């Protein structure tokens, strides 16, 4: 592989899908984006607000259009080294995060995750692998695609509501997040 691929875990995939701008976000990557089979199995739906304040409807996450077009590659654990590392990591992480990290480490891919435990594990297993978060990607997407202020706000609100995501206050882009929602 000449350029490092980027691999999403379930939480980041759900966030991007929930944004309402999934195709545009995928198109903004300069390298190939991918997910592992376990992440596809874990990423089932996003919430959609209903008319009732406390109720939500759910929309399925349908990725076939993106995998068939090649915008998002679906990859799987293939080698014994990948499978062994997955088993080791699955003792302390969900299957999606464990498989994502196993592939990232063995194939030298950058990882997008917001999972604190996954980030810590990745830093221990392979400090040379770049770890990105939803906000890193969203900020880059906004800057590189020259998104309109109202679309940025809509995308971030959708992530918050439909993916139930809110960054920690100590996230390095927390101020950027809050400034975009004003």
Can you tell me about this structure?
This protein is an alpha/beta fold. It has one domain (6-134): 3-Layer(aba) Sandwich (Rossmann fold). 52% of the residues lie in helices and 14% in strands. It has a five-stranded parallel sheet. Strands 3-4 form a two-stranded antiparallel ribbon. Strand 6, helix 7 and strand 7 form a beta-alpha-beta unit.
Q: Count the helices. How many?
A: 10
The CATH architecture comes to 3-Layer(aba) Sandwich
CATH topology: Rossmann fold
Note the beta-strand portion.
5-15%
Poorly predicted segments: none
CATH class: Alpha Beta
**Spatial order of the strands forming the largest sheet:** 5-2-1-6-7
Which structural class is indicated by helix and strand composition? alpha/beta
CATH superfamily: 5'-nuclease
Oligomerization status of the protein chains: single chain
What is the molecular shape? globular
Kindly give the count of domains: 1
> What's the helix-strand series?
EHHEHEEHEHHEHEHHH
The helical percent reads 40-55%
Q: How many strands, which pairing sense, and closed or not: the largest β-sheet?
A: 5 strands, parallel
């Amino acid at each position: 592989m000449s350029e490092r691929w980027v691999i999403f875990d379930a939480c980041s995939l759900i966030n991007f899908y929930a944004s309402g701008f999934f195709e545009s976000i995928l198109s903004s990557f300069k390298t190939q984006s991918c997910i592992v089979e376990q992440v596809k199995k874990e990423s089932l739906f996003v919430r959609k607000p209903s008319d009732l304040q406390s109720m939500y409807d759910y929309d399925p996450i349908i990725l076939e259009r993106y995998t068939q077009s090649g915008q998002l590659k679906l990859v799987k654990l293939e080698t014994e080294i990948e499978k062994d590392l997955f088993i080791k990591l699955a003792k302390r992480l969900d299957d999606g995060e464990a498989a994502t990290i196993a592939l990232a480490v063995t194939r030298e891919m950058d990882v997008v995750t917001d999972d604190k435990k996954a980030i810590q594990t990745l830093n221990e297993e392979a400090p040379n692998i770049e770890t990105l978060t939803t906000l890193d990607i969203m900020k880059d997407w906004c800057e590189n695609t020259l998104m309109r202020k109202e679309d940025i706000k809509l995308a971030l609100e959708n992530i918050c509501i439909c993916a139930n995501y809110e960054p920690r206050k100590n996230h390095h882009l927390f101020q950027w997040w809050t400034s975009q929602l004003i």
